[in-house]
Structure formats: C-alpha cells, structure tokens
C-alpha cells in the first residue's frame, strides 16, 4: 500500500468514503479486515485513503449484500474494474442479480396477497393452517388453496401420511388421471364403457390409497369434493370430472355388488 505525506486530490478518508456511500466507518474497517475492500492508499500518518474506484467496488459489495449474498460469495463475485468493459460487466452482473431479486419479491408479494385472501375467506384464526398454506405457496403448489377445505383432523392425517415428495407425487398422479378422465368426457365415452370403468377403478384406487382404506374419511372427502359453483379454474375442472364420474361410479359399485353409500351410513 503506497504511503502519502498528505491527502492528495482524488483520495478521501474512511469517514468521507463512509458518508458518501451511507455506510458506517466500522463497516469499511470490517471489509478491510476481511480482505473484501482495502483502501487504495495510506497517508503518512497512517490514515486509510479511498478513491472513487473504491467507492464503485463498495457499491458492488453493498448491492450483492442487499441481495442476500454472504461475504464469501461476494468475494468470489467481485469483478475487477480496470477497464470500461470491467465496469460494464460488473453493472450487468448487478442488474441480473437485482432482476432476480425483483422476481423473488414479486413472488413473495403474490404469496402474501394470496394468503391474505385465504385468511379472509377462512374467517377463523388458525395459525397452523396459515403455516401450511405458506409452506405450499413457497413450494409453488398450485393446489395450496385446498388446505382451507380440510378440517384439522384431516390435515393432521395428511401431514403424517405424506411428506413433500410423496405428496407432490400423489398430486401429480391425481392430476394426470383427471386429465385422462376429462379426455374421456370430451369423447363422450359412456359410463359403462371399458375405458371409463378402468378410469373409475384408478380413481377409486387413488381414493383408497389416500385414505389408506379408512372408509370413515369418505364423507369428509365427498364434502370437500362437492362443488356447487366453481370459484377457480381447478374447481371448474374438478366439477366436470365429478359430474362425469358420478354415474360411472354407480355402475362400478353396482358391478361389484357394493352399496357404498349404504355402507357409509352404517
């Protein structure tokens, strides 16, 4: 580090640099200690001196820190500023990081607003259910709003029955099967047709898989699945599936010689 008898033009003290960049002197001293940003010069009296180039480097550090990068990450990401191309690259890198942060904040904002709507619709304070909704929003689970339809006992069962991976796998299989059923509905496949009955069997098998064979859960599931007026795209889609499957399920259980609803009432 070069030593200077006086503070030459173009240099500034640590206090001046800190004031210009709206940081504390202690912050600059810490960055110096960690080898993140050392002053370019030192006065004869031992005062650390910074340049405008140092301020641009500091701007890089502050921007990256605001985006959540650790000091170790920042060290690896800092770009030297020897040429105009270096400065342009540094700014491009910052712009990309900021854009990613903007997208993350947009997603967070949407999640907060969605949660607000769900809270108002539930009309009761249930922090455990709020937490479930938040977790599913963070996982980008498009079916997160179904949580509000389940009572606490059913949610407890789901928590013990499925983890994140098995839960998503089940939802994806259910979604795939629903697509298959919708295709049959569009083809006007009769309820008693082999294709429709095979789809009904798969549908019922998934219900049994979900409940683990516990027939006492069926009334709750039927209540959740009962959609009078669709409030969103998923409910509209599921209503079509339900309306199409109802007569097909009657055929299915009739062939098995089972009165499902009679058994449920016992």
Number of strands: 4
Strand content: under 5%
As residue ranges, the low-confidence spans are none
H/E series, N to C? Answer: EEHHEEHHHHHHHHHH
In whole angstroms, the N-to-C terminal distance is 89 Å
Give the overall form.
rod-shaped
Strand order of the largest sheet: 1-3-4-2
Task: Specify the number of helices.
Answer: 12
Radius of gyration: 31 Å
Mean of all residue-level pLDDT scores: 77
| Secondary-structure content class | mainly alpha
Largest sheet composition: 4 strands, mixed
Percent helix range: 55-70%
What does this structure look like?
The protein has a four-stranded mixed β-sheet with strand order 1-3-4-2. It has helices at 14-21, 25-33, 52-66, 71-77, 84-122, 127-138, 152-161, 164-186, 194-211, 218-225, 233-256, 260-265, and strands spanning 2-4, 12-13, 41-43, 48-50. 67% of the residues lie in helices and 4% in strands. The longest helix is centred in the middle third of the chain and has 39 residues, at 84-122. It is mainly α and 266 residues long. Strand 3 (41-43) and strand 4 form a beta hairpin.
């Amino acid at each position: 580090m070069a030593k200077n008898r006086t503070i030459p033009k173009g240099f500034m003290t640590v206090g001046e640099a800190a004031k210009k960049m709206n940081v504390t002197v202690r912050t600059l001293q810490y960055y110096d200690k960690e080898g993140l940003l050392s002053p370019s010069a030192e006065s004869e009296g031992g005062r650390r001196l910074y340049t405008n180039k140092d301020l641009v480097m500091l701007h890089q550090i502050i921007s990256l820190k605001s985006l959540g990068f650790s000091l170790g990450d920042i060290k690896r990401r800092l770009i030297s500023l020897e040429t105009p191309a270096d400065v342009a690259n540094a700014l491009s890198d910052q712009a990309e990081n900021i854009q990613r942060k903007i997208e993350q904040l947009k997603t967070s904002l949407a999640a907060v607003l969605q949660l607000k709507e769900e809270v108002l619709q539930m009309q009761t304070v249930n922090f455990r259910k709020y937490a479930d909704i938040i977790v599913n929003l963070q996982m980008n689970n498009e079916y997160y709003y179904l949580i509000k339809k389940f009572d606490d006992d059913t949610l407890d069962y789901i928590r013990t029955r499925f983890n994140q991976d098995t839960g998503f796998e089940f939802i994806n299989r259910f979604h795939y099967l629903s697509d298959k059923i919708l295709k049959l509905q569009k083809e006007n496949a009769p309820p008693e047709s082999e294709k429709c009955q095979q789809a009904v069997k798969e549908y019922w098998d998934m219900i049994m898989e979900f409940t683990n064979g516990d027939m006492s859960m069926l009334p709750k599931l039927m209540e959740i699945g009962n959609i009078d007026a669709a409030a969103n795209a998923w409910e509209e889609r599921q209503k079509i599936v339900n309306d199409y499957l109802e007569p097909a399920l009657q055929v299915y259980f009739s062939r098995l010689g089972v009165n499902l609803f009679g058994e449920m009432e016992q």
